[in-house]
Amino acid sequence: MRLFLSSYRFGADPAPLMSLVGRPGRVGVIAAAADAWPRTARTSAVVSDVMPLTRLGFTAEEVDLRDYIGDDGQPRAAALRQRLDGFGMVWVRGGNTFVLRAQMARSGADRVIPELLASDSLVYAGYSAGACVMTPTLHGLDSSDDPAEVVATCGVEPRWDGLGMVGFAIVPHHPPAELPGAENAVPLEDVAAVRRTIDALRLAGIEYRTLTDDQAIVVNGDRTELV
């Protein structure tokens, strides 16, 4: 299993991701975390991720999970698996973690992606919401992401379980504490949301790891490291 889980895109350096992937090839961009956004904002978000991937040599194209939800509301998991079979990597952007989780369940991505990871057929790269959804729980993330957007966007109730591909929660966008005055460079409301998430995880006794926007967690087989 190969995972690249970051707070913001490539972190400080894309080299760890490139080492995990090898030669850049086709990558499917999943922007389901932005499904609650206005259409123009969502479209811009996809473009903003495709461009840096293209500069690294990837051939990037969107995989819209909404295309794999049947008219009857059932997942079209077989069709999604066939689509993802053509990619060496999926890139899962940030946004609302609860919306992303719901769309993964509705499309069958929460089954298909772990299966592809287990067979090492795919690299999973996700940042912010895309990283958080791979953990055991979304507990505490309601400090920054609104679970109510799930009902409005997806027509289902929010889920609080992640895919459990790592054994700890992830708290992204943590201020780099080793830098004097670092918190002043981060909007105060974001700092407060991070603190509330950490407090909720501590109170619940859930193991977690924080990530600054320069950091990422890389999983390669049995090895997990912070880069």
From TrEMBL:
**GO molecular function per UniProt:** serine-type peptidase activity
Keyword Transcription regulation assigned to the entry: answer is no
SUPFAM superfamilies per the UniProt record, alphabetical? Class I glutamine amidotransferase-like (SSF52317)
Pfam families recorded for this chain? Peptidase_S51
Q: Which GO terms describe its biological process?
A: proteolysis
- Key words, A-Z: Hydrolase, Protease, Serine protease
The entry assigns this protein to a family as follows:
Belongs to the peptidase S51 family.
**Designated name of the protein:** Dipeptidase E
Question: Which species does this protein come from?
Answer: Rhodococcus koreensis
* Organismal lineage: Bacteria, Bacillati, Actinomycetota, Actinomycetes, Mycobacteriales
